[in-house]
């Protein structure tokens, strides 16, 4: 266990030349009239080329805010990055000028949002909106941008793309709108795609189609993907590694299989036990007692301690650091070994 | 609070019966001379029975008509045709005082705990409001005491009676909605997506509360949700809806383990399972395309445009929701059979 300010991120060793994207000890707070909400409290994670990292958490855990900090689209004020680094190919994005960040946004790192209907402009045809990026950023002519927009719509498997170029967002179904969003994000051929709850607003059959599409695109275009979600089921299918967030921290970080088989943080364990399973007929659901903390008054010590069945005095007094478990996973719990052994049983 | 069950009320007997209910919303064109040019067939002939003390889950994707069905049962919409009886009394024909009495026996829990509570009313006023609308069902003594009892029943602090909705979290607000639904001691509660807006850890708390209240007060639930895992967990019987119709209905086991309708099978296989190992053994069915518009549903079987089993007969003949040889529970498919490698 290291006590250093920058905690090492677990699992894979740093490849030569560094990680593609690395978030180091990020702190973000929201300064509001009621007080300061400490939304991100020392988040570190990394992403290598070609892999999928899932960031899992409930509302208010800070998963989307981290992504917005990477993209540089935090609403400031109220949001302020207090400290930390976001390294893309070794360069710290947080120290760059807005003009430099604009070069990264879309071209290197692109993002798709949860609600495609409100993310698209209702008064412009989708073809125009997909082409906008190309005209603005690559100086393409209108005709070229149109042609490329059709290609992109084909790529995300929108049927009869050439015909639908002039249609408006309301003429598309929810799944098709999300495909339009994906096409827009892919326009500048990004290396990293951040998908923030891409299927939450969709029905299950459509959700499956979109997740398949994202997995295919990630492989074919050789992108790295950060998938932000609250759905433990969605994650299980596509992610390589999972980072579980709670109260602005990463509480557990592991490869998908180990995390589901033997969660090593009481929060992850509680989450997995509290979801009804389709394939297992359950009895009463076990629950995590209490509520997520108010981010203006985060509990002392381990932020999860008021809800934790493993709680001891040490949890109230001491903030747990990432405990590196034998198999290259980490868990920010004083009793990580016990929790893991309990869940493996 | 005492359970409302009296000796004449037998668990398992039919309490609500719905027979061929139809709701078409007209589509009209023209400004001065409006004329109807079509209809959105939101609910297109739905029949089922709800038994006392059981939970009937209704699942389906958005636009399948499950919420319209809930609103019809609550008489928030007027049906185009069909019949429904609650304890033998006609739900759609009654009006005035009689309808109010019927409604007392059937309450609703809404999906969104953020918008379904009036932000300017205290929790006490919200939960006590049903007593003002139904003065004859109001408690004899102190109304406040009764409201505090209700808060206690749903696991909230009775001292918070004078707080406003914004002072509660999402899960707590949903509990307020449940307390309001319980105020008149109904026998049937229609839950329209009661946990979809909640986080996973909170969702489990609310589901457990609903189950515990059911045992305590002998409630019957109609539980509408799009989350198949939640529905399986809470339901005794399940109905699957597609484009305004029930395509399959049966016990929880019949639907989840021996589904015979292709749509049910596809829906089940599309559900993400939170277990990377189980997932690999699963045999996924990928449906292509989107749900057709309910304004212009396909002829014959509504599902045929996305179905891999579709034959000529599916376009011509509308399959009835009847018992099928493959597994004897009602299924609306000409080629109903249990999936051989059902995972």
UniProtKB/TrEMBL annotation, chain A:
The keyword Membrane applies. InterPro entries: AAA+_ATPase (IPR003593), ABC_Ni/Peptide_Import (IPR050388), ABC_transporter-like_ATP-bd (IPR003439), ABC_transporter-like_CS (IPR017871), Oligopep_ABC_C (IPR013563), P-loop_NTPase (IPR027417). The keyword Flavoprotein does not apply. Residues 23-272 form the ABC transporter domain. It is a peripheral membrane protein. Belongs to the ABC transporter superfamily. One of its GO terms (molecular function) is ATP binding. Keywords: ATP-binding, Cell membrane, Membrane, Nucleotide-binding, Transport. It is found in: Cell membrane. Gene3D superfamilies: P-loop containing nucleotide triphosphate hydrolases (3.40.50.300). This is ABC transporter ATP-binding protein. Pfam families: ABC_tran, oligo_HPY. Its main location: membrane. The lineage of its organism: Bacteria, Bacillati, Actinomycetota, Actinomycetes, Micromonosporales.
TrEMBL record, chain B:
InterPro entries: AAA+_ATPase (IPR003593), ABC_transp_ATP-bind (IPR050319), ABC_transporter-like_ATP-bd (IPR003439), ABC_transporter-like_CS (IPR017871), Oligopep_ABC_C (IPR013563), P-loop_NTPase (IPR027417). SUPFAM superfamilies: P-loop containing nucleoside triphosphate hydrolases. Gene3D superfamilies: P-loop containing nucleotide triphosphate hydrolases. Keywords: ATP-binding, Nucleotide-binding, Transport. GO terms for molecular function: ATP binding. Residues 16-268 form the ABC transporter domain. Transmembrane segments: none annotated. Belongs to the ABC transporter superfamily. This is Dipeptide ABC transporter ATP-binding protein. It comes from Micromonospora coerulea.
């Amino acid at each position: 266990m290291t006590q250093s300010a920058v905690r090492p991120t677990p699992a894979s060793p740093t490849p030569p030349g560094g990680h593609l994207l690395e978030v180091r000890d990020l702190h973000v707070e929201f300064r509001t009239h009621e007080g300061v909400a400490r939304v991100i409290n020392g988040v570190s994670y990394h992403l290598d080329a070609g892999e999928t990292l899932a960031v899992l958490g409930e509302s208010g855990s800070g998963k989307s805010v981290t992504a917005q900090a990477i993209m540089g689209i935090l609403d400031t004020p109220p949001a302020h990055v207090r400290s930390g680094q976001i390294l893309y190919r070794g360069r710290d994005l947080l120290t760059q000028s807005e003009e430099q960040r604009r070069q990264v946004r879309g071209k290197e790192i692109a993002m798709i949002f949860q609600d495609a209907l409100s993310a698209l402009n209702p008064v412009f045809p989708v073809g125009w909106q997909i082409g906008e990026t190309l005209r603005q950023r690559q100086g393409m002519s209108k005709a070229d941008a149109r042609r490329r927009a059709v290609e992109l719509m084909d790529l995300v498997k929108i049927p009869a793309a050439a015909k639908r170029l002039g249609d408006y967002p309301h003429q598309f179904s929810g799944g098709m709108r999300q495909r339009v969003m994906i096409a827009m994000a892919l326009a500048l051929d990004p290396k990293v795609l951040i998908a923030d709850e891409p299927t939450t607003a969709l029905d299950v059959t459509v959700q499956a189609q979109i997740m398949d599409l994202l997995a295919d695109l990630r492989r074919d275009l050789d992108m790295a993907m950060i998938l932000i979600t609250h759905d433990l089921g969605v994650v299980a299918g596509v992610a390589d590694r999972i980072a579980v967030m709670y109260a602005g921290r990463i509480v557990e970080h592991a490869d998908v299989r180990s995390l589901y088989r033997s969660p090593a943080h009481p929060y992850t364990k509680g989450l997995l036990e509290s979801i009804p399973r389709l394939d297992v007929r359950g009895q009463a659901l076990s629950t995590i007692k209490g509520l997520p903390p108010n981010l203006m008054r985060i509990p002392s010590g381990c932020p999860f301690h008021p809800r934790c069945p493993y709680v001891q005095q040490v949890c109230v007094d001491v903030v747990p650091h990432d405990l590196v478990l034998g198999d290259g996973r980490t868990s920010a719990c004083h009793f990580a070994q016990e929790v893991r052994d309990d869940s493996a049983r | 609070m005492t359970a409302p069950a009296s000796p004449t009320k037998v668990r398992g007997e039919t309490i609500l019966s719905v027979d061929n209910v139809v709701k078409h919303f007209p589509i009209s064109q023209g400004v001065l001379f409006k004329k109807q040019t079509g209809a959105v067939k939101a609910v297109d002939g739905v029949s089922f029975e709800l038994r006392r003390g059981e939970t009937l889950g209704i699942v389906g994707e958005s636009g399948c008509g499950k919420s319209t069905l809930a609103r019809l049962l609550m008489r928030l919409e007027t049906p185009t045709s069909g019949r429904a009886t609650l304890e033998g009394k006609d739900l759609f024909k009654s009006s005035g005082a009689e309808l109010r009495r019927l409604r007392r026996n059937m309450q609703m829990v809404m999906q969104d705990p953020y918008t379904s509570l009036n932000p300017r009313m205290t929790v006490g006023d919200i939960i006590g409001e049903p007593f003002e609308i139904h003065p004859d069902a109001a408690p004899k003594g102190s109304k406040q005491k009764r409201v505090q009892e209700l808060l206690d029943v749903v696991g909230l602090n009775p001292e918070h009676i004078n707080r406003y909705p914004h002072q509660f979290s999402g899960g707590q607000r949903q509990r307020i909605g449940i307390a309001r639904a319980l105020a008149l001691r109904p026998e049937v509660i229609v839950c329209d997506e009661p946990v979809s807006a909640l986080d996973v850890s909170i969702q489990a708390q609310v589901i457990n509360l609903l189950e515990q209240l059911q045992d305590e007060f002998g409630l019957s639930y109609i539980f509408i949700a799009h989350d198949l895992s939640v529905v399986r967990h809470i339901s005794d019987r399940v109905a699957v809806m597609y484009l305004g119709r029930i395509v399959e209905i049966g016990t929880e086991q019949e639907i989840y383990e021996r589904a015979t309708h292709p749509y049910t099978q596809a829906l089940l296989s599309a559900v993400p399972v939170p277990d990377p190992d189980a997932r690999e053994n699963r045999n996924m069915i990928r449906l292509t395309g989107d749900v057709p518009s309910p304004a212009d549903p396909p002829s014959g079987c509504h599902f045929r445009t996305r179905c891999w089993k579709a034959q000529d007969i599916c376009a011509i003949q509308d399959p009835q929701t009847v018992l099928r040889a493959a597994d004897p529970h009602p299924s609306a498919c000409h080629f109903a059979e249990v999936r051989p490698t059902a995972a």
